[in-house]
Amino acid sequence: MSAPRLRNDTPERAGLDPEELRLLVREVHDLTTGERPWAAGAVVVAGRGPVIAVEEAAGWAVRYARYDAETDAGVELPARARVPMTVDTPFDLASLTKLFTSVAAVQQIERGTLGIDARVGAYLPDFRAVVEHGITVRQLLTHTSGLRPELPLYDCPDDAARLELLRSEAPVRRPGSSYLYSDLNMLLLQHLLERLTGRGLDVLVYDGITRPLGMTSTDFGPCPDAAATEDQRRPWAKADRGMLRGVVHDENAWALGGVAGHAGLFSTGRDLAVFCRTLLSGGSYGPARILGPDFVELLLTPPGLGFAVDQPWFMGELAGRGAAGHTGFTGTSLVLDPATDTFVVLLANTVHPRRRGADSRPRAAMGTWVGRGVRGVRGA
């Protein structure tokens, strides 16, 4: 049986309080206005069941020509040269890419070709530190491998040096002892999946996730029409690349050619809504099935495999009953809540024209408005 596809309709048809969603839309516009907005532009998509109740764009996909360090402000483009944000604008997803890498891994677990508690060294025997410390697939997926958050792969002279750095990197904590968020987990998982299947991660994501789900706007870059990100220059960044648009922002993913387990995908709000709806429907969307319900549950059961679970700092009031999701450094986030059958995707270019300290309160607010929208209908 086919799972229902998404359709646009009213908040009432979605089972959501329209007043709460009006407040959500107003807040998105407020976030993109003023001299120093939270983001130059943003897209929000929210819904319940098969209904998209909000699909809204605000601000600018491209607002600034460069960043001026002396004034600590962006140099705005002339009005005619700016690019308005639309609901179809693609974004650099940054760490939301990790969710697709995780699904690709769980697909192999479902097929029986990968053991969730198997030692990674069994698949990557040339990765010496992984072999020596007995890191497992589950530890990579739950960020309990003990590996540090990142390595300066962008400073290596060539691919051989980058690979050697990753092969020799030992954990800084005992594997399995504690949570330590690390991009290296998904880079190792990428190498494992590519070794196991003989196919690149970009092919695995396309064949196993985006193509069957009809996510035609989701792919690894370049993506020329994407929202602009950062005027990337030292000392605030790790490389001197200038104003970025349509090429991956993350310096390590860039050094790796744009296809990486932790970053590199571009997508739209509508495509990510399809991704959320698929997981809320037990792995199916329309006639396509990318995972069985038991393996979706495995992904989303605390502490989550790749997905963060019940994190109010970016989920707001949707957290607390098994909501799952992730954030991305460029200003992206998604949350799906099986308990209420709701989802909210917020895509923003918060690093345009340059990166700042993280502020996830607007992300949390989106989850809160949706959570209140459910309660408002229930009369609670």
Give structural attributes.
17 strands, alpha+beta, Beta-lactamase, eight-stranded mixed sheet, 380 residues, three-stranded antiparallel sheet, 2 domains, Methane Monooxygenase Hydroxylase, Chain G, domain 1, 13 helices
Q: Terminal Cα separation, in Å?
A: 34 Å
Structural class: alpha+beta
Low confidence ranges: none
CATH class of the largest domain reads: Alpha Beta
Average pLDDT score: 97
Count of domains: 2
**Quick one: how many beta strands?**
17
Put simply, the count of helices is 13
**Looking at CATH, which topology of the largest domain would you report?**
Beta-lactamase
CATH architecture of the largest domain: 3-Layer(aba) Sandwich
Order of helices and strands: EHHEEEEEEHHHHHHEEEHEHEEHEHEEEH
Strand content: 15-25%
CATH superfamily of the largest domain: DD-peptidase/beta-lactamase superfamily
Task: Report the biggest beta sheet as strand number plus sense, adding barrel if it closes.
Answer: 8 strands, mixed
Radius of gyration: 20 Å
